[in-house]
Amino acid sequence: MARSRDDNKRKAVMDSAVYLFSSKGYAATSIQDIVAHSGFSVGTVYNYFANKEELLTSLIEEGWEEFFVEIQEGVRTRKGESSFEYFYNILFDTVLENIDLASLLINEPLLYPKLEKIAGDIFGFFQENPDILPENVNKVMGFRYDKSLFYAAALGTIQAIKLAKRGFIDIEADILKASIGRIFINR
């Protein structure tokens, strides 16, 4: 008979893992560290995840799938520049709220294939829906979709958000959001 699963416990284990993976690094974090931080038993952690790698993969895949569906639906219900502005705002706010996970994604080599998939999903979405991008973004991209420029902008933005949120640079996150937004959104 399968044990029942409690979604709140699973989420608490995942939250502990994100925090520890982000602060200590994936390799330096053990299942025992996650157990101690979450306050649950080893059995509880293994009830939800077979091993540390499955936990890491679940963090990224589940979070991305839910987020990307929300972006696609939200952008497609809007027209013109408001769709890109929606995309930008939800992406920035989600990264801000989940900075440990975003930081983990760009700093953990084991996750680079996942990062490539995520960037490819977003990049592909814009290629399939070019009318979403404001004219100034098309100018910045040189009227073609340059994947390397896309990566640089996304990774730089995540690092800037992390530094601002943690107080390492003297700027409020909302001012950073507005400043970066001016580059991409006609105002």
Q: Whole-number average pLDDT?
A: 81
Number of helices: 10
Derived structural class: mainly alpha
**Count of distinct structural domains:** 2
Topology:
Layout: H1 7-24, H2 31-38, H3 42-48, H4 52-76, H5 81-97, H6 99-107, H7 112-128, H8 135-140, H9 147-165, H10 173-184
Summary tags:
single chain; 187 residues; mainly alpha; Arc Repressor Mutant, subunit A; 10 helices
Question: What can you tell me about this protein's structure?
Answer:
The chain is mainly alpha-helical and 187 residues long. It folds into two domains: 1-49, Homeodomain-like (Arc Repressor Mutant, subunit A), CATH 1.10.10; 58-184. It has ten helices and no strands. The chain has helices at 7-24, 31-38, 42-48, 52-76, 81-97, 99-107, 112-128, 135-140, 147-165, 173-184. The termini are far apart.
Gist of the model:
The chain has 187 residues and is mostly helical. 74% of the residues lie in helices and 0% in strands. It folds into two domains: 1-49, Arc Repressor Mutant, subunit A, CATH 1.10.10; 58-184.
